[in-house]
Amino acid sequence: MPGNSGLDPLPTGILSDIPEMSAPFAHVKPLATDDGHLADQAENVMENLEKAFPVSWEQFHRDARALAWRLAGQGPFQAIVCITRGGLVPAAIVCRELEVRLIDTVCIASYHEYKTQGTSAVLKEIDSKVKEIGEGGKGVLIIDDLVDTGKTARLVREMLPNAHFATVYSKPQGRPLVDTFVTEVSQDTWIYFPWDLGLSFQPPISGGKG
Ligand SMILES: O=P(O)(O)OC[C@H]1O[C@H](OP(=O)(O)OP(=O)(O)O)[C@H](O)[C@@H]1O
Ligand code: HPA
Ligand SMILES: [Mg+2]
């Protein structure tokens, strides 16, 4: 590509469809990260030729609001249960939009290596007050940032089988477990959330030091 020599962009098929995302992120290598763990993940993305889907705060706010719009006609919801930690941010946005004031958490720690979901531990259960709301959780909204393999969603759905399960993003494997979501990405896409990213210096396209 003229004027593009030396560039080795991430395989960003999905990003190129989203102009506002493709411009700032398409040439990031590795992804802007604050810690070594994420840098390793970025390296894995490169090595496995997977797609990266970095999400800015603005984009996440827009997508979480879009989720609230979709949920608005499906309530009313008497309570929200967010799955920590990723569900905390979208739940904050959705509860503001839908004016839900009873918010609970189910705290799950999953121990996994990059893509492979390992074991999960429930560190805090859903409050009994929320469990009593409707039969099997009817009228309760469960929120997470994304569903990937569906393991986390399956675990929480068993706790409240009749609750409405919503995520901002979804991947095909976990999609059947979600009632409402906004954007689907392919299974081989890794979503980078804004709270996991940071600003970093970008070398000039020419390859010089800037
Ligand atoms: O569909 P699955 O394969 O279960 O993956 C989806 C889950 O993985 C991530 O959470 P993670 O367990 O990494 O922890 P966190 O929310 O505390 O970051 C994400 O926030 C979902 O909860
Ligand atoms: O694509 C993802 N991004 C961030 N966290 C995740 N946990 C499972 N899949 C993902
Ligand atoms: Mg999570």
TrEMBL record:
<feature type="binding site">
    <location>
        <position position="148"/>
    </location>
    <ligand>
        <name>guanine</name>
    </ligand>
</feature>
<feature type="binding site">
    <location>
        <begin position="144"/>
        <end position="152"/>
    </location>
    <ligand>
        <name>5-phospho-alpha-D-ribose 1-diphosphate</name>
    </ligand>
</feature>
<dbReference type="GO" id="GO:0032265">
    <property type="term" value="P:XMP salvage"/>
</dbReference>
<feature type="binding site">
    <location>
        <position position="191"/>
    </location>
    <ligand>
        <name>guanine</name>
    </ligand>
</feature>
<keyword id="KW-0472">Membrane</keyword>
<comment type="similarity">
    <text>Belongs to the purine/pyrimidine phosphoribosyltransferase family. XGPT subfamily.</text>
</comment>
<keyword id="KW-0460">Magnesium</keyword>
<dbReference type="Pfam" id="PF00156">
    <property type="entry name" value="Pribosyltran"/>
</dbReference>
<dbReference type="GO" id="GO:0032263">
    <property type="term" value="P:GMP salvage"/>
</dbReference>
<dbReference type="GO" id="GO:0006166">
    <property type="term" value="P:purine ribonucleoside salvage"/>
</dbReference>
<keyword id="KW-1003">Cell membrane</keyword>
<dbReference type="GO" id="GO:0005886">
    <property type="term" value="C:plasma membrane"/>
</dbReference>
<comment type="pathway">
    <text>Purine metabolism; GMP biosynthesis via salvage pathway; GMP from guanine: step 1/1.</text>
</comment>
<dbReference type="InterPro" id="IPR029057">
    <property type="entry name" value="PRTase-like"/>
</dbReference>
<feature type="binding site">
    <location>
        <position position="148"/>
    </location>
    <ligand>
        <name>xanthine</name>
    </ligand>
</feature>
<feature type="binding site">
    <location>
        <position position="191"/>
    </location>
    <ligand>
        <name>xanthine</name>
    </ligand>
</feature>
<dbReference type="GO" id="GO:0000310">
    <property type="term" value="F:xanthine phosphoribosyltransferase activity"/>
</dbReference>
<dbReference type="InterPro" id="IPR000836">
    <property type="entry name" value="PRTase_dom"/>
</dbReference>
<comment type="function">
    <text>Purine salvage pathway enzyme that catalyzes the transfer of the ribosyl-5-phosphate group from 5-phospho-alpha-D-ribose 1-diphosphate (PRPP) to the N9 position of the 6-oxopurines guanine and xanthine to form the corresponding ribonucleotides GMP (guanosine 5'-monophosphate) and XMP (xanthosine 5'-monophosphate), with the release of PPi. To a lesser extent, also acts on hypoxanthine.</text>
</comment>
<dbReference type="GO" id="GO:0000287">
    <property type="term" value="F:magnesium ion binding"/>
</dbReference>
<keyword id="KW-0328">Glycosyltransferase</keyword>
<feature type="domain" description="Phosphoribosyltransferase">
    <location>
        <begin position="57"/>
        <end position="201"/>
    </location>
</feature>
<dbReference type="InterPro" id="IPR023747">
    <property type="entry name" value="Xanthine_Guanine_PRibTrfase"/>
</dbReference>
<feature type="binding site">
    <location>
        <position position="145"/>
    </location>
    <ligand>
        <name>Mg(2+)</name>
    </ligand>
</feature>
<feature type="binding site">
    <location>
        <begin position="85"/>
        <end position="86"/>
    </location>
    <ligand>
        <name>5-phospho-alpha-D-ribose 1-diphosphate</name>
    </ligand>
</feature>
<keyword id="KW-0808">Transferase</keyword>
<comment type="pathway">
    <text>Purine metabolism; XMP biosynthesis via salvage pathway; XMP from xanthine: step 1/1.</text>
</comment>
<keyword id="KW-0479">Metal-binding</keyword>
<feature type="binding site">
    <location>
        <begin position="190"/>
        <end position="191"/>
    </location>
    <ligand>
        <name>GMP</name>
    </ligand>
</feature>
<comment type="subunit">
    <text>Homotetramer.</text>
</comment>
<feature type="binding site">
    <location>
        <begin position="148"/>
        <end position="152"/>
    </location>
    <ligand>
        <name>GMP</name>
    </ligand>
</feature>
<keyword id="KW-0660">Purine salvage</keyword>
<protein>
    <recommendedName>
        <fullName>Xanthine-guanine phosphoribosyltransferase</fullName>
        <ecNumber>2.4.2.22</ecNumber>
    </recommendedName>
</protein>
